[in-house]
Write a structure and sequence with these properties.
Blueprint: E1 7-9, H1 12-33, H2 40-52, E2 65-68, H3 74-84, E3 89-92, H4 95-98, H5 101-104, E4 114-116, E5 122-124, H6 126-136, H7 143-167, H8 173-184, H9 197-213, H10 221-231, H11 234-238
Parallel strand pairs: 2-3
Antiparallel strand pairs: 1-3, 2-4, 4-5
Helix pairs in contact: 3-6, 6-7, 7-9, 8-10
InterPro entries: Glutathione-S-Trfase_C-like (IPR010987), Glutathione-S-Trfase_C_sf (IPR036282), Glutathione_S-Trfase (IPR040079), Glutathione_S-Trfase_N (IPR004045), GST_C (IPR004046), Thioredoxin-like_sf (IPR036249)
Family: Belongs to the GST superfamily.
Domain GST N-terminal: 61-141
Length: 243
């Protein structure tokens, strides 16, 4: 069974370069042994082994596979991966494959997105996958940083989006976005001076509210400025902003 109808690899250049460098070091190691001393016979034996042995090849790097479909929340994960320069394989699934035992080993409920981690672990729910990608990037260096980021990711998924979806964008906008507006009046981004996984989660769902429910955020100038900055980013344009 073929899962992959569409395969995209983000950020492979860095990983490939690292693998090539490692391979070069491994191939050079027999010759390096000759510089470390020892008897002449030992040096000759080492030289013969270096000349006749098969070069050691570095293993191909393993990258996470993210399964989904065009227009789904998989795009949010892809956006984050591009922003943080984390290589992933993005694989489009059909419903038949989503119901298969093989895919349910990745996502037990057979939904999307799902992620097969570098070590084969299955991760599901877009927020959890996003935090995993942020961890791979090293952008959550402390428990406190991870907790602060997780708070926004969970809020976007469990509070903001359900409020927008159930009300068709007609919920208490001040109650929902008032605190966000205040934070963005003090900082360009939710967690400091740079875009983070928190901004990707919140920004994506604000954009979905605008697209699906014609949600008007003009009463929130800081949020409007924030969304303009998000929509200007290349990674956003290639994923969520590309439909």
């Amino acid at each position: 069974m073929t899962w992959c109808a569409r395969l995209e690899v983000f950020g492979t250049t860095t990983r490939t370069m690292h693998a090539t460098t490692a391979a070069s070091r491994l191939r050079a190691s027999p010759a390096r042994l000759l510089l470390l001393g020892g008897s002449r016979a030992a040096r000759r034996a080492s030289s013969r082994r270096a000349a006749t042995s098969t070069p050691v090849r570095a293993a191909a790097p393993s990258v996470p596979s993210v399964y989904g479909s065009p227009g789904s929340r998989t795009q949010i994960v892809e956006w984050l991966a591009l922003e943080l320069d984390v290589p992933i394989k993005s694989v489009t699934l059909n419903r038949a494959v989503m119901a298969s035992p093989e895919y349910r080993a990745v996502h037990p409920f057979g939904k999307i997105p799902g992620c097969k981690a570098e070590d084969g672990t299955g991760i599901f729910e877009s927020g959890a996958i996003m935090l995993y990608v942020a961890d791979l990037a090293g952008s959550l260096p402390t428990p406190e940083a991870r907790g602060a980021a997780a708070a926004w990711v969970i809020w976007a998924n469990a509070t903001m989006w359900p409020a927008l979806e159930t009300s068709r964008g007609k919920c208490d906008m001040q109650g929902l976005f008032g605190p966000v507006e205040d934070i963005l009046g003090r900082s360009d981004w939710l967690l400091g001076d740079e875009l983070s996984v928190a901004d990707v989660a919140v920004g994506a769902y604000v954009k979905y509210g605008q697209l699906f429910f014609r949600m008007d955020i003009s009463k929130f100038p800081n949020l409007s400025k924030y969304m303009a900055a998000i929509e200007s980013r290349d990674a956003f344009k290639k994923t969520v902003g590309g439909g």
